[in-house]
Each structure stands twice: as structure tokens, then as C-alpha cells.
Amino acid sequence: MKKLSIIFLLSSSFIFADTTFVSGSVNGTWTAAGSPYIVTNNLIIQPSDTLNIDPGVNVLFAGEYRMDVFGLLKANGANDNHITFASTDAGSFRWHSLNFSDESNDSSSLNYCSFQNGSESGYEPYHGMINCNNSSPTISNSTFNDHNKRGIHLKNSNS
Predict the structure, then answer these.
(1) At 8, is the secondary structure helix, strand, or coil?
(2) Whole-angstrom Cα distance, residue 123 to residue 120?
(3) What pairs with residue 84 in β-bridges?
(4) pLDDT score recorded for residue 148
(5) Helix or strand or coil: residue 96?
(6) What is the mean pLDDT of the chain?
(7) Which residues are bridge partners to 9 per DSSP?
(8) 60-81 burial: b if 16+ Cβ within 10 Å, else e
(9) What does the CA dihedral 17, 22, 25, 28 come to, rounded to 10 degrees?
């Protein structure tokens, strides 16, 4: 019995070895090797920062958190390898939204992404799962499922 418990503990820690926990200011590159990225508080991409998210990455929100983009976000999946933004609790509308502010870089892009179980930030002007406020990121080849408000909310945007 003890031998079985030890084997279980070793295999359990191996399963979760690639999990990365994120919160606060983020930048750099999120890779499939570090996935899933578990969001444990609000995220912010500062005006001078860039966050690249590689194909196959899962961004899972562990609560009612949002990602505010003031800098550059490049989340470019592939036709057969999407980037997923969802809740850690499948089927629950637990995460808030992805917000492109008026200060965000209009070269930002969301391509081949899957957005699931999102909500809204609950304050003006962010009333969708993806929000573009006086900003125009490119959003293409992406899906929006199981949200409780709007998939995309545009305000003064050419997205």
C-alpha cells in the first residue's frame, strides 16, 4: 500500500509539472511547454510591454479575473492548434474579459483563438468577453462559446 501511494505522488507531480501560474503585469512569450497558464488574479500588459502567446496554449482563469491590454498582445494560434481562453471550471462563467484599452497597440492580434465561459468586466465600456475601446486589434478565425453577455463588444473600433 505504501509503495502505491509513493508512485501516485510521483506521477501526480509529473502531471502538473508544466502548469504556470500568472497574475499582475505580464509580458514575454507563453509557450505550449508552459501550458496551461492558470490566471490567479487580474492580468495587465503595460503600454511598453508585449505578450506573445504561442499556438496550443491554454489560458485558464481560476476566478472572476480579466486581462487588460495597454501594450501589445499577439495571440496567434493555428488552424489545427488554437489558443484557448477559458475558465478552470468548465461550463461556468467564471472569468471576466479580455480588454483592449484606448492605449493598446493596434497591431495586437487574436488569430485562431477559442474563447469560452467568459463574462464581462462589469464596468463601462467593457460589456463583452472581448472588448475593444477606442482600439482596433485584428480578431480573426476565432470562436466564442458559452458566454453570458456578448462575445465581442466594440466601442469606437475598427476591429
Answers:
(1) helix
(2) 8
(3) 58, 114
(4) 64
(5) coil
(6) 82
(7) none
(8) bbbeebbbbbbbbbbbbbeeee
(9) 30
The model's pLDDT over 140-159, given as tens digits with 9 standing for 90+, comes to: 999 888 766 666 666 766 76
Question: Cα(33)–Cα(85) distance, rounded to whole angstroms?
Answer: 16
Place of cell 480578431: 139
- Inform me whether the pLDDT recorded for 84 exceeds 90: yes
Q: What's the whole-number mean pLDDT along residues 103-113?
A: 95
What secondary structure does DSSP assign to 110-148, as a single string?
EESEEEESB---SBTTB-EEEEEES---EEES-EEES-S
Distance in angstroms (rounded) separating the CA atoms of residues 17 and 20: 9
Say what the pTM is. Answer: 0.82
pLDDT digits (tens, 9 = 90+) for 26-53: 999 999 999 999 999 999 999 999 999 9
- Name the grid cell of 144: 466564442
Backbone angles phi, psi at 8, to 5 degrees: -65, -45
Burial of 88 (0-12, 13-18, 19+ CB in 10 A): middle
Tell me which residue has cell 456578448. Answer: 150
Cα–Cα dist 16/117, whole Å = 23
